[in-house]
Structures are given as structure tokens and as C-alpha cells.
Design brief:
Strand content: 35-45%
CATH topology of the largest domain: Diaminopimelate Epimerase, Chain A, domain 1
Number of domains: 2
Distance between the termini: 6 Å
Pfam family, one: PhzC-PhzF
Protein name: Phenazine biosynthesis protein
Number of strands: 17
Organism: Hebeloma cylindrosporum
Number of helices: 5
Order of helices and strands: EEHEEEHEEEEHEEHEEEHEEE
Largest sheet: 8 strands, mixed, barrel
Oligomer: single chain
Shape: globular
GO molecular function, one term: isomerase activity
Helix content: 10-25%
């Protein structure tokens, strides 16, 4: 039997058993070609977490390749896996302040944050705002909400945006924190605008409410799954808000997610908008704490 070691961290928190759990499975160089993508998917399904990372060991002075899987698909990029893997690697090498991760969406430099135990990274961005789209079916499935709970009403179109190809979110703004709390998982994904093509490989529902203190309260649903913290969705939302509502300059957002399911997660996103109104940079930040470690039988 061949075994792989793994570590589980809680991400976007510095408190044990909060945040979003992440499994990091280490793949030694000699097993790189033996652990197939299909086997990685099977292992991720066994963990049954929001995401599982497969970390390919290599030269720390070069980008370290990672593969990111949900329980049923591989992703080109996701926020909490990259933040968690960055925290994990830098915690094991106190002499380094930066590590680079190679994802399907590109290389991501991760640096230590100003607060101990935190990191920040530049999100690989191919930002695109798609045509707004009515969500009659999505809203009809939310039996606990009425028209006034939606900022755009029952029949109004809702914004849809992508952080990179294959990671797209319906951005559903609700009118109160109470309405946000009444949202429920459903068996269906949101109705995507026609013609998304490869942009629409994954379409999640990211609901949000902006509190009076500026904090964004959010929830992310992928059918019956509610994600405790979603860095890619947070980056998408903040990119959209900065581009459509803020304009030129550097804008920092604080996001609070996972409260309703007992997994409070704290996410920070900074977006830089150029003079011509385009996104120049999106930076994602957060903490992580190790919870457990062990080994698994790969084959």
C-alpha cells in the first residue's frame, strides 16, 4: 500500500473549528506520475470538504504546483485552498516571507500578512462581468423570502461575474441581514445567462448584504452545499462592487461569511481600479490554523 500524508486546516480564521476546513495532501516527487487526476478526485470525495488541495513537493524557490478539487470537480482557482496552502507552507519555513503556488489559473505569489498567522495573495484575475440575468426560478425556491427581501425584487435581473474562466457567481443582493439568514440551500444552481461557454463551468450563488459599518455579510451556495468561506466568490463580489460602485482608487472590503452554519469566517479583499475604470489588482487575505494530520492509502 502507498500512503500519502495530509493536514487539515481551518481557513479564514485563527480559531480552531471555525472558518472553512481544507485538506492538504502532500504528493512526493516520486509519486507525481502515479497519482492520477481521477484518483485525486476520489480522494477529495472521501474527504468531502469544500475543497482538497494536492501539494506537489518540489523546490521551494520555484512555484509549487497544487491541484484543487471539490468533492465532484477540479477547479482552476479557489481562495480558501490558496490561502490555506500559503499559511501551511510559510508556517513551516520561518525564514521565508513569500511562496509561489502554481494553479491551473496561473502562478500565485503568497506573502506573510502584517498580522501573525495571516497571508495575502494576488488573485489571478481574468475578470468579466456578464449580462445581468433574471432569477425567477432561483428566487421561487427560496420560500422564506418575499419580493421586498431582494434589492432588485422578484423579477429584477441580478449581476453575474467571473473572477477567472470557469469560476462564475450570481451576485444576489438582499435587503437585510435577516433576509440573508432566511436563505436556504436548493437542489439547483442559479440560472446562468446564455452563451457563457467555458466561463460557466461552475456557477455559484453568492448572496450579500452590506451592513451600516461597511462589512459585507455573505453566504455562498452550490446547490445543497453551503460553503463556510469562499475566497473566489468574495474576490468576484468585491471586484464587481469596486468596478461598478466605487470607481478609481484602492478599496478594501471586509467580508463575514459562514455565520449561519456556525463556521464564522473573516475574509479581506483589496481591489485597485485604474483611471479608465478597469480592475488592476485584486488581493485576498486571511488566516489559517492547523487542526489535524494523518495519512491515507492512495492505492
Amino acid at each position: 500500500m502507498t500512503r500519502l500524508t495530509y493536514t487539515i486546516l481551518d481557513v479564514f480564521t485563527s480559531t480552531l473549528f471555525l472558518g472553512n476546513p481544507l485538506a492538504i495532501v502532500r504528493v512526493p516527487m516520486e509519486l507525481r506520475e502515479k497519482i492520477t487526476q481521477s484518483r485525486k478526485q476520489t480522494i477529495a470525495r472521501e474527504f468531502n470538504l469544500s475543497e482538497t488541495v494536492f501539494l506537489h513537493e518540489g523546490n521551494p524557490d520555484e512555484p509549487l504546483e497544487i491541484d484543487i478539487f471539490t468533492a465532484d470537480m477540479e477547479l482552476p482557482f479557489a481562495g480558501h485552498p490558496t490561502i490555506g496552502t500559503g499559511c501551511y507552507l510559510l508556517s513551516r519555513n520561518q525564514t521565508r516571507d513569500t511562496v509561489s503556488l502554481r494553479t491551473k489559473a496561473g502562478d500565485i505569489p503568497v506573502t506573510r500578512g502584517s498580522t501573525p498567522g495571516t497571508v495575502k495573495l494576488c488573485v489571478p484575475t481574468n475578470f468579466k462581468i456578464h449580462p445581468s440575468h433574471p432569477q425567477l426560478r432561483t428566487k421561487a425556491l427560496q420560500l422564506g423570502l418575499v419580493a421586498s427581501d431582494y434589492v432588485n425584487g422578484l423579477e429584477g435581473s441580478e449581476p453575474v461575474a467571473s473572477i477567472v474562466k470557469g469560476m462564475t457567481f450570481l451576485l444576489l443582493e438582499v435587503s437585510s441581514e435577516a433576509a440573508l439568514g432566511r436563505l436556504q440551500p436548493t437542489p439547483e444552481r442559479p440560472n446562468a445567462p446564455p452563451g457563457l461557454g467555458e466561463w460557466g463551468d461552475f456557477v455559484g450563488l453568492y448572496a450579500f448584504y452590506e451592513r451600516g459599518d461597511g462589512v459585507l455579510r455573505t453566504r455562498m451556495f452550490d446547490r445543497t452545499l453551503e460553503d463556510p468561506a469562499t475566497g473566489s466568490a468574495a474576490s468576484t463580489l468585491c471586484g464587481w462592487l469596486a468596478k461598478t460602485r466605487k470607481g478609481e482608487g484602492k478599496h478594501t472590503f471586509s467580508i463575514l461569511q459562514g455565520v449561519e452554519i456556525g463556521r464564522k469566517s473573516e475574509i479581506e479583499v483589496t481591489v485597485e481600479i485604474s483611471k479608465d475604470g478597469e480592475i488592476e489588482k485584486i488581493e485576498l487575505g486571511g488566516a489559517a490554523v492547523e487542526v489535524m494530520e494523518g495519512s491515507l492509502v492512495a492505492f
